[in-house]
Structure formats: C-alpha cells, structure tokens
Please model this.
Amino acid sequence: TARYRIAVIAGDGIGQEVVPAAIECLDVVAERHDIVFDWHQLDWGSDYYRSHGRMMPVDGLDRLAEHDAIFLGAVGVPDIPDVETLWGLLIPIRRRFEQYVNLRPVRSLPGVSSPLAGTEPVDIVIVRENNEGEYSEVGGRLYRGTEDEVAIQESIFTKRGITRVARYAARLAADRRAAGHAGRLTSATKSNGIVHTMPFWDEVVRGVLAGFPDVTTDSELIDALAASLVLRPHRYDVIVASNLFGDILSDLAGAITGSIGCAPSANLNPDGRHPSMFEPVHGSAPDIAGQGIANPIGQIWSGALMLDALGHPDAATDLVAAFEAALAGGARTRDIGGSASTAEVAAAVRAHLETTAA
Ligand code: NAD
Ligand code: IPM
Ligand code: MN
Model:
C-alpha cells in the first residue's frame, strides 16, 4: 500500500464545494489502486483571515512542508483585497516550495462543446513559469491619494528561472513527440523591443532548445498567439510562457475547450525536494459560490495530475477516463451546457470508477 499525507486547503467560495467532490472521487480511485490518502484538512483562507488577521498560521509553510502534496481549491473573496489573500497564501506556497512549473493541460473533452464553431480537437499543455517574471515583489505605490500617485512594478527574469522552465517544457515536448503528439514547442514572447525582459527570455529559451534538436520550436508574439489560439487552437502542442502570459493563456485556452471550470493545474517542484500543489485554474467564483452548481472537473482533473506526480499514472488514467465517461454520459454542470449539480457530477464520476474493473 502506498500512503500519502495530503494537505487540503479548500479555501474560499466554490473551493469549499469542488474540493470535497474531488476527494470523494480520489478516495474511490485510490482504493482500487491500493493507495491511501491521509487528507489533512486545513481551514486556512479568508474566514481564517477574518478571525486571525492572516491567511494561514505563522508556521503554515513549515506545516505544509511535512506533506507529500498540497490539494488546494481557491482563495479570494470580494470583501478582502486580493493582495492580502493571494500574497498571504497562494504565492508564498508556490515560491517557498519552488513550484517553478505550473503545468496546465487543456484538452477537448467528450460531451463538452467549444464556444467556437468548427473547432478541431485541442490537446495543449501550457508550461507556465510560476516563480518570477511579472509577478515580482519589487515595486509599490507612491504618493497615495494625491494627483501624483504612481504605481511601479519591476519584472524579474533570471537566467536560472527561464532555463529550468524552458528545459522542463522541452523535455515534455520531446516526451509527447515520443507518445505520438506533434512535439512542437511554442514560446510566448513580446520581443519586439518594447518590453526589455522578453528578448532575454528569447535568448535563454533559444539556448536551452539548442539542446533538443528533435523538438520543433517557434516563438510567437503574445498578442498574435492569443488570436491564433482562438482561430487555430489544434495547431498548438506545448506552450512555454512567462508567469503573466501563461496565466492569461490558460484561461483563454480553457474557455476555448468549453469552460475554465474544467481546467486543471499542477504547481510542480520538479526536483521533488518540496511538495507540489494541485489546484484548478479557476478561482473562487464568488458569483456562483454556495449554490452547488460549480463544475468540479477542474478540481478532479487536478487530483489526477496529483496521482500522476506521486507516481501512479494508471490511477490517474482511470480517474481521467471516469470523468470523461461521466461528461459524455451527460453529467455536466451549467457552465458546459448541462444542468447537473456539483454533487451529481462527482457521483457520476464515482459510479464510473466503481463499475470499471481495476
Ligand atoms: P474565477 O475563475 O473565480 O471566475 C471567473 C468566471 O468563471 C466566473 O463567472 C465563475 O462563475 C466562472 N467559473 C470559475 N470556475 C468555475 C467552475 N468551477 N464552475 C463553473 N463556473 C466557474 O475568477 P474571478 O472571478 O476573476 O476571481 C474570483 C476570485 O478568485 C478573486 O479573488 C481571484 O483573485 C481569485 N482567484 C484565485 C485563484 C486561486 O486561488 N488559484 C485563481 C484565480 C482567481
Ligand atoms: C491562477 C490565478 C492566480 C495567478 C492569481 C489568483 C494570483 O489567476 O492561478 O491562475 O495569477 O497565478
Ligand atoms: Mn489565472
């Protein structure tokens, strides 16, 4: 039996709904593969902030370090500034545990239609740089409340940071090529001289890719890439992008295949020295929270990415097959044109897991 200690932070809004739904499914698939998850529920997030003045305890990161993985819903509420909720929990976890790869697969799913007419099947993996870039702590606001008010933020790109994410993306493209995909790597950039950091990104990425002669590579300007993703999403395979570009592209690509409610992500520490974190691409969705209608697929799929990262690809494959069968069978929430509740989708996924031979 393989046993894992998983830190669970359901967090805010629909995180409280989709996380339990995903855990139900993970427990079933785990049992069938001789895996035991010890779920360690942490009540951190905005309610915790309201009573303690912080998003997690002072030693929160040290406590997370004792786990094999972190399973997160979302954080963020309308009445607390995002700067508190995000810099108080999400971003410190990604940084402290050097989760420098944010892996965001995007695929057309059975029974889920794209809002775009005539789209061919899409199968993309976005590899988002997750520790630096545009999301820097350097900057601030000056002359607040005056007519001279200014906001400044420096982007920080390091050779080491770009190299490691580009290398991960290139290896992934090579592996996908071996598995029958195009094996094409597109680097999202903005190197036309306006943004100083991007020619550096390009240079470092080019240097890394020189070591991967089998991977077809190109580089596209982020604005044109966004348009092209809408027009020809099936042409893309692996996309490597900076923190902010990757963030935007992943919601865009998620919407193209049906809904960001289906989109998963893995915040990976590829060296395995620290726990990785698995969470959907979407946020706390305050507009639909508390109604039981949130799409749990992004969270469930994130659970499959966790199984994969923990070394259980067969269990991951079973879980993906089960939610695909559930979707195909009509267990779909409103955001993807159905009328099922969160709980009904989870029950359908479980039912598929229970009826397939292990
Ligand atoms: P959001 O992703 O929460 O919601 C955007 C839209 O998509 C909303 O209309 C929402 O109803 C819909 N949506 C999202 N997930 C869905 C799901 N599973 N099922 C059905 N519909 C879904 O983005 P937002 O509204 O811009 O942000 C809300 C809050 O979440 C903010 O505080 C933001 O900072 C935070 N946020 C947190 C994370 C995270 O914790 N990782 C990620 C993104 C946003
Ligand atoms: C995401 C989210 C976060 C990000 C926000 C909430 C800071 O949008 O995980 O995609 O931009 O990384
Ligand atoms: Mn985002």
Notes: Residues 126 and 352 are 28 Å apart (CA to CA).
